[in-house]
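Obj.: predict assembly geometry.
Materials: sequence records (below).
Method: joint structure prediction, all chains together.
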Amino acid sequence: MIKRLGIYCTFSVLILSSVFAFQQMHLHANENKNTVLNKYIAGDEIIIRVQKNQWNGKDPMLCHASYGATMITGEETETEVIFKLPEYLGRKTGLIDWQVGRLDGQIYIEAQDSVKSMETYLGPPSIIAGYVDYSMLVSIPTDQLDNPLPNGTKVNVNHQFQRNIESEVTYVKDRVAHKNLNSYPRANRMLVSSEAKGKDSKEMTLNIVPEIPKSFKIFVDRNHNFADGNQISRLYTSTIKDKYGNLVADGTYVKFIIKDKNNNTLQTFGTTVNGIAQANMLHPKSYDEWNIKAFIEGIAESSSIRLIYKNIMEDFEYTIHEGKRKITVGPLHSFMNQIVPDGLPVTMNLYQEDQLTLSLYQESEDGKVNFYLLEENVPSGIYSGEIKTAGLIKKIEFLEL
Amino acid sequence: MKNSSSNSKRIIWGLGYLLLLLLVIYLVSKIFSYFHQGAERNKILHTEIIQKSTYRPVFSWIETDNDGRKIDDQTRLSLKKDYLKAWQVKNTALFTNELAGIDDLYTQSARENIYQLIQDHKARDLRVETTSLKHRLEIDLFSEDGQLISMKDRGVIEHIQVYKGEELLQSRTDTSDYRVILLLEDDFWRIRHLIREKSSLNKSRKVEQSLPYAINGINYYPQKNSWNTFGRDFDEEQISDDFKIIKELGLNSIRVFCQYGDFGEADLYTFKIKRLLKLLDLAEENGLGVVLTLFDFYGDYSVRDWTLNQRHVIGLVRACRDKPALLAWDIKNEPDLDFKTRGKDRVINWLKHMIDQVKIIDKKHPVTIGWSTTGAAENLVEEVDFVSFHYYQDLDQFSSAIDKLKIAVGDKELVLQEYGLSSYGGIWNLFTSSQNAQSSYYEDIQKKIEDHNLQYMLWTLYDFEIIPEEVVGKAPWKKAKQQGFGLIDLEGQPKPAYQALVKALKK
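Observations (raw structure tokens):
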């Protein structure tokens, strides 16, 4: 048994010494002691022998390892006491201090020289196209027993972007290998993986999303330029791209802000499809001038355009019927003398000694509107009035009811 | 005759009836109060639970530029919280061999390591009482997405005690460097890898300090505030007057006690510290040196308490170390009395660590321990700067005890830190003492002290009205005795011992 152990120990010392030569930086000789630090490979059976004459006959061995301390009892032979570390202690890389009475020492357990798994993290998962943004690949190569490999272990980082397939080298530092992956000017996906000692990680995807879009233009598409309150003007943007020519993502929200001639604000919105957003707006009901500008809020804006909506009629007629309690407005003709489509608003206001006493509102039907001034609402007296429609105003100076 | 017997019968019946009535009322009230206790509405909210951390090691950051994303304060804060919690739950798990909290703070693969350790310990009836006392973190890598940290924890001081059943098998204090890799999972910074990379065994610090002059002093409590010097009735004028009396007696120093709980345990009360500093100033004004006794009325010593004890001692020593009146630190009064109940090794380990803590912070003043007997004073001779002991035994054995101790301590200075005789002579001690006995005691012992060339601090200036239970217990004979150790009686008149001492000192 002892012989076999001896062979085993020499063998591990041989392997270790070669490891030691390459990776001296990770091994910590104990400054306080002159003895050489004993090194093992994770998974080795670890046995510490204490000469019997240095032992008081009862002391167990205290072991202080990475995840905590424990105590082991020794086996006596004729000349020495053999302390066998529990298997779970020998499996983890790191320094173990042992102490038997006043005797103490250290052993260092190295990770195995092979990789079982590449624990890899990539983040952030999406970055912005161009030359500035980057993501970081973090890789912890670990051995069979879940020990991270020592510093200096070579890790290859592979990444594919369109036709580019590249492999870069990085080294484990602070027990972790990391590599920054720079963005490309084209928005697309990048596939990333890493490899150490022949073990590959799984594939990971890095999304390169477009940079913030540049300023864009807007256009209008309308049937006619009359303020008929009935037709629809379609507003749409030019193809919105970033400075590298990448289309903005579909569904980007574009807000169209409209200022009318009285400086009131109207707004409508659309979301982009293939870089173009469109939105609709109903024509105004009377003459108006619109200044329109579109925004991707906080990111980009368009140039502005100006639209004019002309009145649909220059004049209109009204009739005061007998008894003066019924007033008919119309027939109302539109820009081609056609009867205006139903729904044109007409307002009539009645004043008595410059005081507004009644305001009536109706929408046109077959080009006409009838106002009935009922006695309950309008007692007999002397009034004046006005009729408003399509931006025009007609006054009735004297109306005796 | 007959009449009187029927009268007495009537009285007995009457009394019996009364007793029965009282008993019934008592029982009914008990039942009534039983059904009216517990389950208070506000308990539903658990508002009464105040979380008080029981693990507070010394903590600091090493500021360096780390790889990856720049670390921000918020991350640091949560990292510190989770990382220390991870140590705490690991320490607790090792102590109780239960796994509470481990899953929150160690990743799935990392917690396996703790499981195995604990399984093994359970099987072998082992228990590890451990704590980490100091952490210094240096972040090396913070990944760009903020999900992974690789850092060093430098100079982690750990104390370990391994028990089998109730028996302490071995203990150890060491300092290690750890490599730690953490992942942010479920909003916890969880330990993924923990690797011990470097370590050294802690040796006690060997910077020795000596007393600036020979101590001829007295243990001091104000007469009205016995065992409560820094309480609500802290009276500067009274203390100053007392100091003048002490000075006139021909003494040069006092011993004062800082109680652990009274001073706020881990979080020192600033107002108590202020009073202590005031006392030190008053001592300086009156030309007295002060031996400060720490951890009075503390008696746990368990490893789980160490981080709190450490905070207490660090705070106190920092506050007082620059006061000119300060003579020496006395870590604990009569810790050997706790050997039996707490375990000698446990107490000794604790004392060693606290000596180290004082020595780290105050490199100028000597440190001692106020052992209760000459025999106990042979402990930790290496660690203390001078050896203090108390002597209340028979004076006949005084010389031999001192000679024996002198051999054990070598060339360390000796201070007889407490001695005295109660002048109480009453029913409780069968009139075996008196004021005159006390007086002649001083005549005797001062001679012996001189013969042995000892430094000394006698017990005490005043007779006390109030003796707290914590001092000698509830027994009235002990209390009565404890009241009479003063040189000045309860009326403020010097006792014969006072004159005897003055005479002895004048020689």
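Conclusions so far: Chain A has two helices and 32 strands.
To do: check interface contacts against the pulldown list.
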